[in-house]
Amino acid sequence: MNIIIFGPPGAGKGTQSKFLVEKYNLYQLSTGEILRNEIKNSTNIGKKISSIMDAGSLVSDEIVSELIEKIISNSNYKSRIIFDGFPRSLKQTNILDNLLKKYNQKIDIVLKLSVTLETIKKRISERKNLEKRSDDSEEIAIKRYKMYEKSTEPVIEYYKKLNLLKVIDGERSIEQINKEISDIMALIEGWL
Questions:
Q1: Under 8 Å between Cβ of 109 and 166
Q2: Residue 96: CB atoms within 10 Å
Q3: All domains of the chain, ordered by start, with CATH?
Q4: pLDDT (tens digit, 9 = 90+) per residue, 14-33?
Q5: In the chain, beta strands by DSSP E
């Protein structure tokens, strides 16, 4: 089972992905983490990524798709991937569709954690008290929330038309969200 999880920064994607990884033995493919690992390991592509990011630019879809293909083509992860942070545009959606077809896979479900901007602000201020993260300011949170909503809207619509989208009320407790996701997974063939 391949899953895509959407939600603005602070919605709880990381928490819910971790839950899915543990409960269903899936692999979380976080594009941000993959990019950071390539930089940390000083691979050739990592050096290229580092110079692009140092210049304040976004890493190209071509580089990201090359890294994602390494995971999709690995038989250890076949039909066990949670896509977190990808795709974020229709171009990336098309890249993902082509890669999955190439390796005889598909997306089985798309989960969208629906959360209001007010909740995001509240969570980030609570998180700031617990752990210091450079991206945890209200101003940055508002900007990232609006950017996320605008950029992912066409992607969400694409998966909605394919009847793969399940919207989860992300306003509730972690446990309630876990339960709703588990209920959805139980309905999908193969998880009964």
A1: yes
A2: 20
A3: 3-187 (3.40.50.300)
A4: 899 999 999 999 999 988 88
A5: 3-6, 27-30, 81-84, 109-114, 165-169
